[in-house]
Amino acid sequence: MPLMVIPTSQLLWFRLAALVFTCVAFSVVSSGGYLPHEGLADWCIFCWAFSFTCTAIVLLVEIFGLQSRVFVSWSNFPITVASYAALLCLSASIVFPLNYLKGNNNRSEVRDHRIVSTVFSCLATVAYMGEVSLSKARPGEVTGYMATSPGLLKVCQTFVACVIFIYVSSPVSYDHHPGTRWCMAVYCICFILSMLIVVLCVGELTGYLPIPFSKFLSIYGILAVLMYLSATIVWPVFQFDKRTPPGSYRSNLITVSVLTALNLLLYIADLVYSARLVFVKA
User: Fold this and answer.
1) pTM for the whole thing?
2) SS3 sequence, the chain?
3) Which of 47, 122, 125, 157 has CA atoms 20 to 30 A from the CA of 26?
4) How distant, in Å, are the alpha carbons of 75, 109, 161, 187, 259 from that of 164?
5) What is the CA radius of gyration of the chain?
6) What is the sign, positive or negative, of the torsion defined by CA atoms of 123, 125, 126, 132?
7) What phi-psi label fits residue 148: left (phi over 0), alpha (psi between -120 and 50 degrees) or beta?
């Protein structure tokens, strides 16, 4: 019996490409990029290193045929990893050049290292998107929940919520009024529940819910849409007035408003897809 199984599929090549691209991205910038020790630089390196590590784990499990021995659902785990990695690398591909290439006056060698990292970050994003596209469930195909459109939307919802947390906490902009504190509660509650769904699916724990999983999704989808609808209205009402200072603080508030509206659209799409899955199955 062979110890290693080398899969020869398009998924393998996309994963290998993503592994190489993310490795180059954080290796090059770490060796010659001379990044400052600050949040955004650490975030970009984390995006590349985390994506590289998770992809390496997926490849090793599949090469050694250990899918049945891991304590996660292998129909859900790889595509969940690829989805988060695609979003992480995409964010790094935007944040990194805007902060460390635009208007940069460092010597050419440092700038070249940063350009190379940016290029390979973009290539990694494309590779992960290709993997997600290949792994996504096709119509009529029986697969894990995370490979369906609602599952992928859950990943996007949690990621957007994380970005919202970054903008509302630096500086703190949600504790001025009960209305904005309600918005923060909406972001936290929906993030926790969406992440709980991801964990339950990846860990094959949906059977432990006190109600059927499909009913839980429908109830949560309706509540999440209503909660985010209220936050989409309340946040700008209580944040924007003549006393709001211009500059980066106001830009952060606008960004949160846009991201809140974006997540509302994601939750609406999720509710529509989930309802279709439930009714079609019924």
Assistant:
1) 0.90
2) CCCCCCCCCHHHHHHHHHHHHHHHHHHHHHHHCCCCCCHHHHHHHHHHHHHHHHHHHHHHHHHCCCHHHCCCCCCCHHHHHHHHHHHHHHHHHHHHHHHHCCCCCCCHHHHHHHHHHHHHHHHHHHHHHHHHHHHCCCCCCCCCHHHCHHHHHHHHHHHHHHHHHHHHHCCECCCCCHHHHHHHHHHHHHHHHHHHHHHHHHCCCHHHCCCCHHHHHHHHHHHHHHHHHHHHHHHHHHHCCCCCCCCHHHHHHHHHHHHHHHHHHHHHHHHHHHHHHHHHHC
3) 157
4) 29, 35, 5, 8, 7
5) 21
6) positive
7) beta
> What are residue 65's phi and psi, to 5 degrees?
65, 45
Condensed to tens digits (0 to 9), the pLDDT of residues 53-68 reads: 999 999 999 988 888 8
Sort 144 into a burial class: Cβ within 10 Å, 0-12 / 13-18 / 19+: buried
Distance CA 170, CA 158 (A): 19
Residue with the two structure tokens 């955004």: 40
> Which residues does residue 172 pair with via DSSP β-bridges, in sequence order?
169
Determine the average pLDDT of the residues in 161-171.
Answer: 88
Q: Give mean pLDDT, residues 158-176.
A: 88
Name which residue leads in pLDDT, 254 or 99.
254
Opening angle at CA 242, ends 236 and 245, nearest 5? 85
pLDDT at 278: 57
Q: Which amino acid is at 153?
A: L
Look at 3-7, 41-45, 47-51 and tell me which has the smallest mean pLDDT: 3-7
Tell me the two tokens of residue 21.
């691209």
